[in-house]
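Much of what follows relies on a compact textual record of a protein's fold. A record is reproduced here so that you can trace the correspondence yourselves:
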Amino acid sequence: MSTAATTFSSRRPEYVPNRIDDPNYIRIFDTTLRDGEQAPGATMTSAQKLVVARQLALLGVDVIEAGFPAASPDDFHAVRSIAIEVGNTPVGSHGHIPVIAGLSRCNKSDIDAAWDAVRHARRPRIITFIATSEIHMQHKLRKTPEQVVAIAREMVAYARGLGCHDVEFAPEDAGRSNKELLYHIIEEAIQAGATTITIPDTVGCNLPSEYGKLIADIKDNTRGIDNVIISTHCHNDLGLATANTLAGACAGARQIEVTINGIGERAGNASLEEVVMALKCRGELLDGMYTGINTHHITITSKMVQEYSGLHVQPHKAIVGANAFVHESGIHQDGILKYNGTYQFISPDDIGLIRVNDSGIVLGKLSGRNGVRSILLELGYQINDNEFEDFFKRYKEVAENKKRITVEDIKALLSDEILNPEVIWSLVDVQATCGTLGLSTATIKLINVHGEEKIGCSVGTCPVDAAYKAIDKIVQIQTVLQEYTMTVEGVDAIATTRVVITGDVSNYEYALTDQRNNKRFFCGSGVAKDVLLSSVRAYMSALNKMSNFIGVQRSSSEAPGSMSVEKTEE
């Protein structure tokens, strides 16, 4: 069982951009809202990003990378909103305020956009990066090492010149870069004013010993490195992101870049919950290193990111997987019943794995507003009065037909009712028939943002297929259904549906677009007692995201000076 203190928040050193007064303290830099959202299907709305950012602040992360402001007007708006609200609001008993960071490539327009978005925070940070590996410089940048060094030096200085006193520089693909070039470009970035230097294992190819030595070599051979913070940024292509991150910390890195549930490009990033719990449980073997994370918020944050990103973790995922604290073997069950520590090294309580019923409140159709709101607060959700009334109305509709409302029901309803994108198309009615006597048919009535009602009818291989085809006839956006999943736990449970669709967005460049085939993924979720209604709501949620995206890009592309970017990676 874990013997570490339940929270380290009270020991958090005062924030200074380029130093940490306690050499054992590790800054947690969360990039769920930027690198995590680059995972296909992980698109979140601005409202969802703001809620996740609030939760990350409660979790106690030191730095929130809120996004890539130059990517699109929507991303800029999301980062700016987070900087204004989360970046100025003390949380917890110690009044913690996280750094709010925005990513930029090494060019002035990106850096300007990042600064305009994050400057409203009490502690703003600009992150800028340029590739330094031979394969990237030759095939992607088509620039010489000398040109890359000059660009890095100039752009770090430019970011500092804007009035930003906290600038992070990352030599992209450092894990495959020439070390002498790394020493040189990092020295130039430090002289230009960088306060943090990130060492990315961009393609996740390093081994722990290799990555740890890279950090150590940089510390030993780079002038001025003692005047900045070294940061890790590890991808999980070989399943070594957590191990590499810990190796980097042991070698001298004092900031680690992670995502909730390890989401991110390809196989993902280093997982916050894995790294933090390793430091918490085995810190005594890691030179006493510790973090400011309140681990009791880990489970809540993990569930929230799963719901809003649409990326569910596998049952055997370390720390937050559904099976992480489940015991089926008779031998294990016998041991656990006698003493939890026999087969549980980590206590579920350490990560906030509790049930709503532990609070003494049981939710049902007779529950009032105060009881329901208290459960939302216990789960870490803070919504305004208007949003709560919308949620409570849906809650009552479900509770009338369900004996008891579970935690999962609450989360599903909240995600479906409150945190969906701006509604362009709303569902009015749905009717379907199926069986052995004929083809499945569906009739759909929608209403658009202008108040116009449209009706569509179609046949399909099943009621869901027929309903989706009827919706397509009305909305007239070409889509491909990439993924469809539904969870129904028992006959009395709410059906939760998740869909992922793609569409051709070749005319609307975006940082998260797969440039190889001009496809972008949009995820939607829906909940209802009726499985068809749940399915239709999920599809409508995804379509509204796509419609919002196309609408934003159209308005941007038609305006002078519109922005477009290529896919990013560190």
Confidence is low (pLDDT under 50) at residues 1-9, 355-360, 507-518, 552-567. DSSP finds 16 helices and 14 strands in the chain. Residues 354-417 form one domain. The longest strand covers residues 495-504.
